[in-house]
Amino acid sequence: MTFLSTIKAAALSAAMIVSVALPAAHADEQYFPLQSYRVGPYAAGGTGFFGGFIDYLNLINIRDGGVNGVKLTWDECETQYEVERGVECYERQKSHAGAAAWNPLSVGIAYAMIDRITADKVPLITVNHGRTDSTDGRVFPYVFPLLLNPYSETSGIVNYIAAKEGGIDKLKGKKIVVLYHGSPYGKETIPIYELLAQKYGFTVQQIEVPHPGNEQQSQWLTIRRAKPDFVVLRGWGVMNPVALKTAVKVGFPVDHIVGNVWSNSEEDVIPAGDAAKGYTAITTQASGNTYPVVQEIVKTVYGASKGNLEDKSRIGSVYHNLGIVNGILNVEAIRVAQEKFGHRTLTGDEVRWGFEHLKLDPAKVEALGAKDLFHSINVSWDNHEGEGYVTFQQWDGKKWNVVSDWIAPDWALLRPIIEKSAEAYAAEKGIKLRTADDANAVTTN
Amino acid sequence: MAAITSDLTSAPVLPKWIAPVLLLAFAYGVVPLIGSSYLFEAILLPFLALGLAGVGLNILTGYAGQVSLGSAAFMAAGAFAAYNFNLRVEGLPLIGSIVLAGIVAAAIGIVFGLPSLRLKGFYLAVSTLAAQFFVQWALTKFSWFSNNSASGVIDAPRLSIGGLALDGAVGRYLFALTIVSILTFLAYRLVSSQTGRNFIAIRDNETAARIIGIPVLKTKLLAFAISSFIIGVAGVIWAFAYLRTVEPDGFDLDRSFQILFIIIIGGLASIRGAFFGAALIVVFPLGLSRLGGFLLGDVFDSGVLDMSQRIVLGALIILFLILEPDGLVALWDRIRRRLLFAWQST
Asked: Per its UniProt record, what PANTHER family does this chain match (chain B) (predicted)?
């Protein structure tokens, strides 16, 4: 009898522990499905970005015990930047409860996910890239090209070239060649360069480099014949160092090449060696590890041997810092949503509401330890980009040096173009334009 | 050769149509009820699309003996043609777009099949590369094909047949399954017809085929046309039902190789072989990745896991081709014969 009752008691207490422990373990977690890529031609970008993102999530977990006590979790699924692998990962990871937002870091995969995430009501973040017209929150309720969409980037680059030439009117008669990556990402800006060329009176020639871009002899010979005043490098991965090296080979001056936001990292210039000295590129987040938030990651996360980067010298590199900034934006969106919906696991739609009210002014950015790392963001229900500022940095052979102030792209010029494109998409797909009231209706379970 | 032998040695006990009918009954009646969205979206849809592409290539390469490295180009031609017919021809039903897309792919197939009249073997394979590069280049170069979309990526239209919306995972699965079943059945009838025998005659000995009065020129081009038609429709399924987005880069040379490997691994000159091969190519890496993630996910990051999966997959394919050069179909038939033999002798 005593034996039996002991067993009974043990079973009862075990059942109680399980019943208490199980919901507790699940109730306070917010999950990030990471469709990462650590192999393939774009591994440098993938490891840096997802490394920084994971490092920041780890920082929040270790330092603060999560966001208001809600622990952040994640797992990775390798996509190699390929669309069908990304779709498979999406289907695999979406069954996990409490997904906050998707961050595939691939335009091709993002395009394939738009219908799917809209049906599932979970935000899709394409920081610094993505489909430009998804800036229009009336048509794309769940897609966020945060900080900088491709058109704003283009406007920023053209304004910078104009400033170097001595004013926007000096662009007239100039010639700019855009060397772009042969992918959805690379092609995204073709129409806006044509449009700006018409508006400001410069001529533009756009030359494609087929993916992955490890051979560019013929493209650069064409450039040499065209004798442009500037070359805009809209590259990605291995294409960038090859472009810089080939430019030297054909004798094009590297200080007249301006890199876009995916041609601006250490991984793009170091392999090019001396060929990259003097090369300038646009960025939304400065390089370097002196910012307080990066220092805290070094101390707290890498100090506890939980750092994600294998090569610690990459801490504070451009991609790593972009991952950290992306982590800040995702986490702060959750924080905003938690203030409205409660300190608990949020639904994807609640996180969407959080992103649509994500406003970080320079003071708030400083409080987060990211002063000068990035400028600010101001997302609203119909502007999903959030008016990010850009700056330009020049490579001196060892490190990037900031060579401009924070510059605002010409949003007023771009907004009508974006709206027109988004409305055409809405008409084609039969989507009803969303209003502010629709944006405030949130699915809470 | 393989087709004839497999015909002669197939199971003597049951009529031949029983197995496919049971399989289809299962695929239509049971799978939609029990399958998860992951099963449809990540496994069955790519399996059906690639399996059908394998059937198409098998007609050309397995039966008619013409090696092609341009399969992905014909898929792309089909996908973009269907998109444009659907977009630009008012009131054309979806099925109409798909058939017309197949015809466009077939026409392109005939054009790029012309070198086969003079070239054989590896030389022909290299000349079909022209199709691969030309089609991809044309689709990228002329933005008309993608309706002037900024990034060159187009969204697939909504799938519906006769007012019946097929946008959900199950709907798209049934849509793909129906098309694949019909085309596979037609392909099966074709290879056992006189035309199919002509294909095999040309493959085995072109001179002998010419002497016995087979019109070599016409038959070769017919093989290219039929094969490209099927592959083009497979491209429509890939783009419309599976990914629901189309970009020319998704149809690169890697995809052509993938389809070629499917028929080599599955079994040349076998309709079933294409599906066996597609199952292996689609499902096996996923299983391996799941297993790797489950066993070692906490120890290594996803990059290391992915690299090791490639090594395992490559090693298994080599091992398998050494042990069973005739493909999965031969392996399957041997297992079935053994089982039947064991059953009959008891």
From this structure: ABC TRANSPORTER PERMEASE PROTEIN, HIGH-AFFINITY BRANCHED-CHAIN AMINO ACID TRANSPORT SYSTEM PERMEASE
Which residue, chain included where needed, has tokens 């070692």? B296
Contacts of B151 in chain A (CB under 8 A): 107, 111, 131, 184-185, 187-188
Determine the angle formed by the axes of helices B45-57 and B253-266, rounding to 10 degrees: 80
| CATH number belonging to domain B2-344 | 1.10.3470
Contact call for A112 and B305, based on CB within 8 A: no
In this prediction the ipTM stands at 0.82
Q: How many domains does chain A have?
A: 2
Instruction: Write down the pLDDT at residue B5.
Output: 47
> Are A127 and A237 in a shared domain?
no
Q: Are residues A128 and A263 in the same domain?
A: no
Distance from the Cα of A313 to chain B's closest Cα (Å) equals 19
Across-strand partners of A74?
Answer: A32
**The pair of three-digit structure tokens given for residue B321, joined into one six-digit string:** 């081709």
The verdict on A295 and A436 lying in the same domain is yes
Q: CA A105 to CA A35: how far, in whole Å?
A: 8
Is A402 a domain residue? no
Taking alpha carbons only, the member of A139, A112, A113, A132 closest to residue A124 is A113
| Same domain, yes or no: A225 and A358 | no
Residues of chain B in Cβ contact (below 8 Å) with chain A: 36-38, 41-42, 46, 140, 150-153, 155, 242-245, 247, 249-250, 286, 289, 297, 301-307
Is A184 at the interface with chain B, CB within 8 A?
Answer: yes
Taking an 8 Å cut-off on Cβ atoms, the answer to whether A112 and B249 are in contact is no
The shortest CB-CB distance from B42 to any of A83, A88, A132 is to A88
pLDDT at A12 over 70: no
Among residues B256, B257, B262, which one has the least CA distance to residue B275?
B262
Residue B245 and residue A112: Cβ atoms within 8 Å?
A: yes
Averaged pLDDT score across all residues of chain A: 90
A155, A211 contact by CB (below 8 A): no
* Interval A25-67: pLDDT, tens: 455 899 999 999 998 888 989 999 999 999 999 999 999 999 9
Strand pairing report for B160-161 and B164-165: antiparallel
What is the residue range of A334's domain? Answer: 28-148+287-395+417-440
Q: Are residues A341 and A272 in the same domain?
A: no
B193-209 average pLDDT score: 94
Is A176 found in the same domain as A74? no
Where along chain B do its domains lie?
Answer: 2-344
Instruction: For residue A111, give the nearest of B38, B46, B153 by CB distance.
Output: B153
Q: What's A422's domain CATH number?
A: 3.40.50.2300
Contact criterion met (CB < 8 Å) for B250 and A108: yes
Return the residue in B140, B144, B147, B151 with the most chain A beta carbons within 10 A, the one to mutate for interface testing: B151
This prediction has a pTM of 0.85
Pairwise CB contact (< 8 Å): B301 & A76: yes
Residues A366 and A269 in one domain: no
Model pLDDT, residue A177: 96
End position of a domain, from candidates A223, A254, A283:
A283
Determine how many CB atoms are found less than 10 A away from the CB of residue B188.
15
Of A264, A283, A302, which one is at a domain's C-terminal end? Answer: A283
Is the model more confident about A3 or about A295? A295
pLDDT of A15 strictly over 60:
no
Work out the pLDDT band at B311, boundaries 50, 70, 90: confident
Strands (DSSP E) found in B73-186: 154-155, 160-161, 164-165
d(CA B124, CA B223): 14
Classify residue A255: in a domain, yes or no. yes
How far CA A119 is from CA of B40, B142, B168, in Å, comes to 16, 32, 10
- Report if residue A327 sits inside a domain: yes
pLDDT recorded at residue A25 = 45
- The reply to whether residue B151 touches residue A39, judged by beta carbons under 8 angstroms, is no
**pLDDT for residue A20:** 43
pLDDT of residue A18: 43
Q: Do B151 and A211 touch (CB under 8 A)?
A: no
Same-domain pairing of A183 and A327: no
Looking at residue B106, what is its pLDDT?
97
Q: Is the pLDDT of residue A390 over 90?
A: yes
pLDDT of residue A9: 54
